[in-house]
Amino acid sequence: MTIADITIPYAAYKEADDLIKLVLEKTETIGEAAFEYCHGLSSVVFPKTLKTIGAAAFHSCTDLTKLSYLPSGVAIGNNAFNNCQKIAEIYLEDGITIGEAAFYDCRSLAKIRLPQDLTSISKYMFASCLDLADIDIPDSVTEIGEGAFSRCMMLSTIQLPGNLAKLGAYAFDGCISLEQITIPTTVHTIETGTFRDCSALVNLTIPGGVTTLQRGAFSGCTSLEKIVFPPTLQIVEPEAIFNCPNLKQVAIPQTAKMYVDSFPIRTQIQYI
């Protein structure tokens, strides 16, 4: 089907299961839920005129495998491609903005190029992208939102940008293949559940700059054996490191405020 409308209204083709191939011409705005639940849709060609992809515009287009390049300047709305389970590769030009959970549950997504001027990875943007093994995060990113990469089960390593200021709660929750991660010195708080159930992490050094470890930050890291905290650490909240049966050694400053259940009971604590 070829559509030449400048604006495609809200839910205009929602649940149109007979729609298989879509070519958009001259379109500037794709409305919210415009093609939601079009289960037979397999490919979309976007025009150079496109400016906005509305919230949930292609939500649950479960057969969608191919997207043409999106032009610079497009605003991708919240949940725009949520549950598009067969998309394997996406190339995003500089100048594109991306809403919350835009690619949530894109289970086959293995390769993505992010805009090099992107400043924030929004909440749950890539959550449950089960085949995502690695991703290059631009140096321009200063914030990774809540649950951004949660349950990315193939993600084994990730390089966080040097200017990152905020690492959100549950950002890497359930990343069971994550073996190593370097946290930049610009991050001051490891938030609730940020690395929960990262069961492949073995050794971890927290950089200078981190002052607070919130509840459940490293809970369920069952392979974790050693953590070294910086002198800047001030607070370790209850159950910050919980259900880590192999944790044998924690190096922590004497001045840090801890609770009885901040660490597993048999952990050897070395004060620095």
Short account of what is shown:
The chain is mainly beta.
Task: Give a verbal description of the structure.
This protein is mainly β and 272 residues long. It folds into two domains: 1-118, Alpha-Beta Horseshoe (Leucine-rich repeat, LRR (right-handed beta-alpha superhelix)); 128-272, Leucine-rich repeat, LRR (right-handed beta-alpha superhelix), CATH 3.80.10. It has no helices and 23 strands. The chain has strands at residues 2-3, 7-8, 21-24, 29-30, 43-45, 52-53, 66-67, 75-76, 89-91, 97-98, 111-113, 120-121, 143-144, 157-159, 166-167, 180-182, 189-190, 203-205, 212-213, 226-228, 235-236, 249-252, 268-271. The strands form seven sheets. Strands 2-4-6-8-10 form a five-stranded parallel beta sheet, with no helix packed on it. A four-stranded parallel beta sheet has the order 1-3-5-7, with no helix packed on it. It is elongated and about 70 Å long. The model has no long low-confidence stretch (mean pLDDT 93).
